[in-house]
Specification:
By secondary structure, this protein is of the alpha+beta class. It has 10 helices and 16 strands. It is an enzyme of class 2 (transferase).
Length: 333
């Protein structure tokens, strides 16, 4: 039954999971012409984790979700809705239902949401709408990707960047609304700067009909344009979310950006005048894990005791689409 008195949203209970296999920069030098210095100077990345069989998005997302559910102090049967933010499902028809079954969340509606590296922020805002309207009381939000499946390991512009992982949070209905402000943006005219496009061949099924069939190209990216886009648009969208939250930059306790590149993280923090000790970054250890990067960094900071209840967090995702967005929230109930 809907509780008409709980139309706010809390963000509590976190979990994360990464694959067992580590690929450091030194090993990458055996695949492409590069060096540890070249990679770290340009990206800040030292290593990344890669999912190898039998690991999958399902196994990583399920592990992260179990941790988040336990941390939130609820049971899988209490979950009403599962949102999986991903661009790399095990099944192109969707992965969320498989995770629902693995968790035993028998009452939950489950579906995938695709917004690439912005997926977790878009998912957070989407979950909030279901709770604020009184439709659902407990939402499990997962961000997870296995981008190593779609990397050209001979392209040093992209293969050095990406890693695999999953992170999750539980969003319960709450008397006070802990999602303080947000702003979401899209610009499809810049789609060609970062994509994972369909690569088709054809199969003749009749003399006049040739049906497209095929797979996808590896990830392609114009790094300079994506960098320029991120350092310009991300501070702007965070400012807009802060304005909606009636907060100033000085009131932020932590900044958690999509972990794409340490230079981007540093540039955004500098433009917002956020000091280094308030910036959470783990890109050096995991690389760009797309929709997983924000919840993975969040969970690590919570478990390390950095993030405490009532801390105000500014977060922003940005990437393919092109999409970008920011959310300002307080951790815990």
């Amino acid at each position: 039954m809907q509780n008409l008195f709980l139309h706010g949203i809390a963000i509590t209970g976190s979990g994360s999971a990464v694959p067992a296999t580590r690929l450091d920069n030194q090993l990458l030098t055996q695949l492409v012409e590069t060096s540890d210095e070249w990679i770290t100077t340009r990206t800040g990345i030292s290593q990344r984790q890669l999912a190898l069989p039998p690991e999958s998005l399902t196994t990583l997302a399920t592990d992260a979700s179990k941790q988040a559910i336990a941390s939130a102090g609820i049971k899988p049967e209490d979950i009403d809705l599962i949102l999986l933010a991903t661009s790399t499902p095990d099944d192109l028809f969707g992965n969320a239902c498989r995770i629902q079954a693995e968790l035993g969340a028998i009452k939950a509606v489950a579906f995938d949401l695709t917004a690439a590296c912005s997926g977790f922020v878009f998912g957070l805002v989407t979950a909030a709408q279901y709770i604020r309207t009184g439709v659902y009381q407990n939402v499990l939000l997962i961000g997870g990707d296995i981008l190593s499946r779609w990397v050209d390991w001979q392209d040093r512009r992209t293969c050095v960047l990406f890693g695999d992982g999953a992170g999750a949070v539980v969003l319960p209905a709450n008397k006070s609304d802990r999602l303080l402000g947000f702003s979401l943006k899209s610009d499809g005219s810049q789609n060609h700067y970062l994509n994972l496009g369909y690569q088709g061949t054809t199969k003749q099924v009749s003399p006049d009909i040739h049906v497209p069939t095929g797979t996808y190209h590896p990830i392609t990216m114009n790094g300079k344009e994506v960098y320029r886009f991120a350092v310009q648009k991300v501070p702007e969208v965070i400012d807009k979310a802060l304005f909606e939250a009636h907060l100033s930059v000085d009131q932020i306790d932590w900044l958690i950006l999509h972990q794409a590149n340490q230079r981007i993280i540093n540039s955004v923090a500098d433009r917002l005048n956020i000091p280094e000790h308030k910036v959470i970054s783990n890109v050096a250890h995991y690389g760009n894990t797309s929709a997983a990067s924000i919840p993975l960094a969040l969970d690590e900071a919570v478990r390390q005791g950095k993030i405490k209840p009532n801390d105000i967090i500014a977060t922003s995702g940005f990437g393919a689409g092109l999409t970008w967005g920011a959310a300002i929230f307080q951790w815990g109930r």
